[in-house]
Design goal:
alpha+beta; 6-stranded mixed sheet; two-stranded antiparallel ribbon; globular
Length: 307
């Protein structure tokens, strides 16, 4: 019997010259070929799904994903300065525990804070007396007169509401500079016992710390605590739930901030909350002569908060 050899190498396929056998072997070859094609197709389909062998993926530039992400991270252009007066009080006695001037500076992207003594004298009265007579709005007007600056908004909270609002925004990490052992024996007193070092601080402890540092007249550290809370709590997570937080602020505070004011501040909030913004912090501590802010200190504070 004569064979025709189709290939030259080892493993060559031989087909007999007899027609019947030739037809059968051709059919076998066709079946094998069809099976091979089908198996190859299924194999690449499975691997392609797993490893994303798409044409777009294959030909796309390596930096395509980064470009898309960069587009999403583009922040709005912002400018201007906004001054706030923030006060915390005892609702039972109307005693003013502390008040702070706070500025959001969107020109240089920073927070500025000056925490003032509640006994600060303005035209024969102190902030505590002014607060009892007319609330935070009147204290705001007194601070305007004292420093010659424009203050846009006030936010006034009771001690409990401040603690609750703080906790809603999340605890902060704060480094205590030295051991604190303090006991206030007054009717509405408080106790603090803390070790030096990094601490996780909630709203109740923050209010005690601020009151403690004001009691010992360390205004710089009181400023630092507020700046730390601003820096850590105004973040991307809280930006996502900003509407809920604003509702809580309106419910638990006395303020002249309106819904329109909130809506107009959306871009500022987005920039301040972004991890890429690089927000700076600035602190100015008041200097007192008896219960009055010194003239030199007034000018310094005015320079910080002037628009």
């Amino acid at each position: 019997m004569v064979f025709l050899r189709f290939f030259k190498n080892r493993g060559d396929i031989y087909i007999p010259s007899v027609k019947v056998k030739s037809d059968m072997e051709q059919k076998i070859l066709l079946v094998l070929l069809a099976f091979t094609v089908a198996f190859t197709g299924v194999f690449f389909l499975i691997v392609g799904i797993k490893y994303d062998f798409s044409v777009k993926k294959f030909f796309a530039p390596e930096n395509l994903v980064e470009s898309e992400k960069t587009q999403e991270d583009i922040l709005p252009n912002v400018s201007g300065k906004t001054n706030f007066l923030f006060t915390v009080n005892n609702p039972d006695t109307q005693e003013l525990y502390f008040c702070s001037l706070i500025q959001t500076d969107m020109d240089s992207l920073g927070y500025k804070v000056c925490t003032l003594d509640a006994k600060t004298q303005v035209q024969g009265k102190n902030f505590s007396q002014i607060y009892k007579e007319g609330g935070a709005g009147n204290v705001m007007n007194a601070a305007k007169t004292l420093f010659g600056i424009k203050i846009d908004y006030y936010i006034d909270e009771t001690l409990n509401d401040y603690g609750n609002m703080f906790d809603e925004m999340g605890s902060i990490n704060y480094v205590v500079l030295s051991d604190i052992r303090y006991k206030d024996t007054s009717v509405y007193g408080f106790n603090i016992k803390l070790k030096e070092g990094s601490q996780t601080v909630d709203g109740s402890l923050v209010s005690k710390l601020i009151r403690y540092y004001l009691e010992i007249k360390n205004y710089n550290v009181a400023n630092e605590i507020i700046l730390t809370s601003l820096s850590q709590q105004i973040n991307s997570e809280n930006y996502e739930k900003r509407e809920k937080l604003f509702s809580a602020l309106i419910k638990n505070s006395k303020t002249n901030i309106t819904i329109n004011d909130y809506n107009n501040s959306e871009d500022d909030l987005k920039v301040l909350s972004s991890e890429t913004s690089g927000i700076e912090v600035y602190s100015v501590a008041p200097e007192y002569e008896n219960a009055s802010v010194s003239e030199k200190s007034k000018k310094q504070i005015k320079n910080y908060f002037e628009k």
